[in-house]
Sequence to fold (676 residues):
Amino acid sequence: MTLSAPVKTKHIIVGTAGHIDHGKTALVKALTGIDADRLKEEKQRGITIDIGFADLAIDDFSFGFVDVPGHERFVKNMLAGAHGLDLVMLVVAADESVMPQTREHFDICRLLRVKSGLVALTKSDMVDEELLELARAEVEDFVRGSFLEGAPIIAVSSRTGEGIEQMKAALVQLATSVEPKTIAAVTRLPVDRAFSIKGFGTVVTGTLISGQLAAGDQVEVLPAGIQTRVRNVQVHGHDTERAAAGQRTAINLQGLNVEQVERGSVLAPAGRLQATSMVDARLEILPSASRSLRQRARVRLHHGTAEVMARVVIIRGSGFRAQGSASDSEPGTRNPKPETRNPEPETQNPEPGVIQPGASALVQLRLESPITALPGDRFIIRSYSPQVTIGGGVIIDPLPEKHRIRDTAARSRLAQLEAADSVERLAVFVEMSGSRAMTESEIAARTGATDEQTAASAAELIRTGRAVEVTSGPLILISGETYRELANKVIEMLDAHHRREPLSLGLGREEVRDRVFGKVRPEIFRAVVARLVDQGKIAAERESLRLAQHKPALTDSEATAKTALEAAFKAAGLQAGTLEETASAAGIKVELARKFYNLLSAERRLVRIGDFVFHTDAVEHLKLLVRAQKSVNPRMDVSVFKEITGGLTRKYAIPLLEYLDRERVTRRVGNEREIL
Ligand SMILES: Nc1nc2c(ncn2[C@@H]2O[C@H](COP(=O)(O)OP(=O)(O)OP(=O)(O)O)[C@@H](O)[C@H]2O)c(=O)[nH]1
Ligand SMILES: [Mg+2]
Fold:
């Protein structure tokens, strides 16, 4: 027997758009019974000043309405409500038809890539049939070629109620095909209002555009970087355990001052995202814009609920310059002849250095105050003065490095990122990070991916060799390319060393680290060495590294001398003395003896104890002697030790005893040793 699945409510955010006085607020009220104009001044003046909210449940759908002001001076407020829309109701009064803010709001919806919606032909009671049909025809014309082409155009009157039921039915119909916002993503709540309620503290409201929020969650207010805890969550005025993506929410935050959060802030999981003062993006200029966008133009950037000032740096391709043209930071003085040699075909922007109306380009936006963004976020730009919408685009890299205007490498990386899916995007970011590599938290802040998504992408990149895992917890990824460069450098360095000094066993680890890995994190050095050892390419001794196949090459006479040195140590037993003493006694040059010592100690034939060097046979024999003494007496003082070793002097006895302590053959107890 199967139980029917519980009905899942689908959350849909519907925004209004349209010219002042065309009946947006009245329509929302006719649909929901809620007056979204909540400010006293709005009621007095009969216009909407700031965004307002209403909600309506029909069947399994929960609609959250965002009602925006139509006044041209309040487009900035409209923009705070225009992000995160699933559907738009483009409101056009039948008696006035398409007006300037109808156009501007509609441009904004297009630039923000609102996917679906309808047109409400309002005030139908104020016009006759003929005028209504005229308005309908104008609207059809207006939306042709856009996402609203073929969308319902419904004549309504908020006064008589005509068409309202039809509107509801149409909204439901459209809502069924809305792709719901995903909860399988990092939580983000762009704050549209922040206020304090006596006894509760600070409350922020906004549309939860991704993820989930529940009481008890540790969150961070960005860009301020203040971490706090969610005390309570409300959706449409009711307490709820958990809010999900797509819902209008009010979040009560613990111990946060209302001054610390404002419209434009973003609420995200604590420590997950990072504020930025630069973003790389594709920027398109509206075909209707009155002029080209100049290099370094100062604009208003609207992203989420934030508005900041920004400079647009148009990133240009490979350096070429039309003859006689001025530097590209002064486009006004450029050669006016059209560029034919480098038409930047992929940007459809015929003139590099400016963006013409209807064209797009890869840009770096340098922000005057920080925002919190992720790849794929849409944004709007408006000119500084007059304040009109001139374009918009999509964020490609929210945490870029600063680019020069002419930066072919940056441009091709951006083009790569722009076309990338999430796996490819991670690959490119990791490649861009070079030998700095990328940590789990850097990946999270730059991609917005969840841990599961990152793990899956990383696994894929590791499988194909595009990336190499430096450590797994926390994850650090380095590109396959950079890894191979570093590994090759190590191999080349060891190879050169072996050629230069065939007698040397290997190169000091520290030297390799300094020279190849001077500025990179120590984990990368360890990972590269470990992998090269695993692959059988190099061998790692405690202090040194060598190529796996490297054997110190000794000439016949060197081999004889080496054997002689070893024999000398063996013969000297525990009285061998320093390396230099034994070497000169055996007639071997000190410098050569040092190299032999390295080889012999690697072969475990010689061992250094304090200032002295002994043959390992002598030291092993000593251990046997001491252990044999245990049956006589488990306690031994220095004089007994001297005695059983055949009269060693103190000079030798003390370092040897300390060595035995370290080797846990003996343990020091006061002035005596206990034999273990
Ligand atoms: N006759 C008639 N009047 C309407 C209708 N809809 C709105 N109005 C009137 O038109 C005026 C403006 O309506 P609002 O709903 O405030 O217009 P708005 O689009 O919200 O205006 P802003 O928010 O300021 O851009 C009000 O006086 C409404 O009563 C309608 O369908 N028929
Ligand atoms: Mg209004």
In short: Residues 192 and 263 are 5 Å apart (CA to CA).
